[in-house]
Amino acid sequence: MDAAAHRIFSAGRIAAITGNTFTALVRLKVFYFVLLFALLLIASSVVVGQLGIQEEFQILKDVSLGAMSVFTSLLAIVATAQLLPRDIEERTIYTILAKPVPRYEYLIGKLAGVLLLLALSLLAMSVCFFVLLFVREEILASDTARQMAGLPPAQIEEALRSLRASAFNSNLVPGIVLIFLKASLLASLTLFISTFATSNLFTIVVMVFIYFIGHLQATARAFWLQTHGGSWFARALLGLVALVFPDLQLFNLVDDIVAGTAIPLGLFTRTAVLGCVYTSVYLFFAWIAFHGKEL
Amino acid sequence: MTEPAVAVRSLTKVFPIPFRRTGLVAVRELDLEVAEGQVYGLLGPNGSGKSTTLKVILGLVAPTSGQTKIFGRDSREVRSREGVGFLPESPYFYRHLTGKETLHFYGKLSGLRGEGLNRQVENLLDLVGLQSARDRRLGGYSKGMLQRIGLAQALIREPKLVVLDEPTAGVDPEGSHEIRNLILDLKRRGITVLLSSHLLAQVQQICDRVGILARGVLVREGRVDDLLTIENQTELILENASPEIVAEISALLARSSTRLVEQRQPQNTLEGVFLEATRSQPRK
Fold it and tell me: What's the confidence (pLDDT) of residue B155?
C-alpha cells in the first residue's frame, strides 16, 4: 500500500485537517458577510459622494478599513469558537484522534483552516475596496479634467496628481496585513479559550470582552501611569495585563493610513512580529490545555 | 512469543466529580487480552465502562492507573494507533462532506496519498455498498449508511485491529445483518476486532470471546462456547422425526436416570423472519 511510515509531524495530515476545516466553513456560507461588506462600501460611496475629494477618499478608507477590521475579527472569533465543541459533540474528533494524528497537528490544522478563510475573505474585501477606490478615482479624475478645461495643463496635471495620491497609496497594503495578523491572534486566542470552555456562547462572550479590553487597555494604561506614577509594581501589573489581554490597539494603524502617513518599516515589522508571537503563544497554550484533555 | 493485539493490565479509570473528594469509578482493576485475529465482544449494561475502556485503549482518555497496549505499544503513544481503525458509537462525521470526500479525508490522515488512496476509497465504497451514494453529502445519509461509511473509514488503511463501539446501535435489522457480515469478513481476513454491544444474540454469533462488565468490573470472561455450554445437558435436534421415534426416545429416557428438561420444536429468530421477508424488496 502507498502509505508513508508514521512521522511525528506530518504536513500532509495538517493539510488534510486544514482543507477540511476550510471546506466546512465555506459550506456553512460564512462568505456571505463579504457581500454585506460590498453593500456597505456601495452605500458609503453614495453618501460620501456629496463631500469634497479629500474628505471622500478619507472617509471611504476609514469606513472600509474599519469594516474590514471588524468583520475579519468577528469572523475569526465566531468561526473558531465552534470548531472544537462541534467536533466533540458530533464525535468526529474520536475518529480523527483515533488515527495516528498527534493533538498538536489537529490544533494546527484547525487554526490554519480558519486563517486560510480569513486570508481569502480579506483578499475578497480588499479587491472590492480597491475596485471602488479605482472607480471613484477615475470618475473624479474625468470630472476634474472636464471642470478644469481651458486651464494650463500643468495646473490640471497637479490637480490630478493630488487626486490620485489621496485615492490609493501603498500604505493600504501593510495596513491590511496588520488587520489579518490581528484576526489571526484573535482566532488563536479563541481556539485556546475553546479548549476549556463549556459552550460556544461562553467562548464568544469571553472573546468579545477580550476584544474590548484589548482595544481599551492602551488608553487605560496611559491613564493609570499618569495618575499613579510608573512604579515597578504598576508596570509589572500592566505588563501582566498586556500578556493576558493582547494590546489590539497596536494593530490599529488606520488613522495613519487614512491620513496618508507612511508606516515606518520598523513599526510594521515590530507589530507583525508581535502578532505572530501572540498567535504562536496562544496556540501553544491551546495545546497545553488540549493535549491531556479527556474526550 | 507474539504480543496480543490488545492488552489491558489492572486498568482503573476514575472521573473526578466537581466539589467531591471521591470520583466516579468507571473501570476498576480491569485485566483483559485480545489475541491477534480474534473477534472480542465487550458486553455490559449502560454505564458499565465499555466505552471508557475502548477510549483508554485508543488513547482518547488517560488511565487513572494501570496500562493498555496495542500490539505491545503503550496506548498513550500516537504510533500505537497506526494499525487501528475505530468506529465510535453513533458517529455523525462531517455532514458537509460526501461519502467519497470523507474516505479521502480519513485516508490522508492515515498517510495514504495519490493512486493508492483513490484505489482504496473505491474498494471500500464497494465493500460497504455505498458506490451509488458516493457523491451525496453525509447530511443526507441514513443511520445505517452512516454506520457503513464509518466502518469504511475505520478500514481505510487496512488496519490490524478494528475497534467498534456499538456498531449496530440504531441500525435496522438489514443494516445490522450487513454490518455483522462485514465483521465476519474482517475475521476471515485475519483482522482483530474488539467491539462493544448490547445485542447479545449478535455478539454470540460473531465473537470468539467475550468479557462482561458490570459497574466497571469484569464479572465474566471467556470463549463464547465455554460460557454458553451447559456442561450436564445435551441437545438433540431431529429432522423429520416420526411420533413413534420421539415416543421411543422418550421411553428410553424414562427407563434411565436421565431427566428430559424440555421437548419443543426449534424456532426461527425474528431477525431471520424479518430478513427473509424484506430481502425480496429492491434496495434504495
Answer: 92
Nearest-by-CA chain A residue for B51: A295
Phi, psi for B16 (deg, rounded to 5): -65, 145
Contact (CB<8Å) A95/B108: no
Q: Which residues fall within 8 angstroms of residue B62, CB to CB, at 6 or more apart? A: A292, A294, B56, B76
**Per-residue pLDDT tens over the stretch B139-152:** 899 888 888 899 99
Lowest mean pLDDT of A131-140, A186-195, B72-81, B209-218, name the range: A131-140
Chain A residues 83-122 within an 8 A CB cutoff of chain B: 90-92, 94-102
Residue given cell 468507571 in the structure block: B26
pLDDT the model gives residue B279: 64
Mean pLDDT by 10 residues, chain A (295 residues): 61 94 85 76 73 76 86 91 89 90 95 96 90 85 82 83 77 88 95 90 91 83 72 76 80 72 83 93 94 84
Residues of B with Cβ-Cβ distance to A10 under 8 angstroms: 111
Q: Whole-angstrom Cα distance, residue B261 to residue B251?
A: 14
Contact A4 B82 (CB under 8 A): no
For residue A27, give the chain B residue with the closest CA: B96
At B272 the pLDDT is 67
A53-81 and A153-167 are packed helices; what angle lies between their axes, rounded to 10 degrees?
Answer: 20
State the burial class of residue B103 (Cβ atoms within 10 Å of its Cβ: 0-12, 13-18, 19+).
Answer: buried
Which helix (H) or strand (E) element contains residue B155? none
Number of H helices, E strands in chain A: 12, 0
DSSP state for residue A3 in the 8-state scheme: B
**Contact criterion met (CB < 8 Å) for A8 and B78:** yes
Chain B residues whose beta carbon lies within 8 Å of the beta carbon of residue A2? 112-117
Residue to mutate among B15, B53, B109, with most A CBs inside 10 A, is B109
SS3 of chain B: helix, strand, coil, percent, to 5: 35, 25, 40
Q: B109 contacts in A (CB within 8 Å)?
A: 13, 16-17, 96, 99, 101
Contacts (Cβ under 8 Å, ≥6 apart) of A207: A77, A81, A186, A189, A190, A193
- B273-282 — which CB contacts under 8 Å span 24+ positions? B274/B173, B274/B174, B275/B173, B275/B174, B275/B177, B278/B173, B278/B174, B279/B174
Nearest to B163 by CA among B11, B66, B59, B246: B59
At residue A259, φ and ψ (nearest 5 deg) are -75, -10
The order of strands in the sheet holding B65-70 is: B24-34, B6-15, B65-70, B73-74
Do B214 and B44 touch, CB atoms closer than 8 A? Answer: yes
Which residues does chain B have within 8 Å of residue A25's beta carbon, measured at their own beta carbons? none
Q: In this structure, what are the phi and psi dihedrals at residue A89, rounded to the nearest 5 degrees?
A: -65, -40
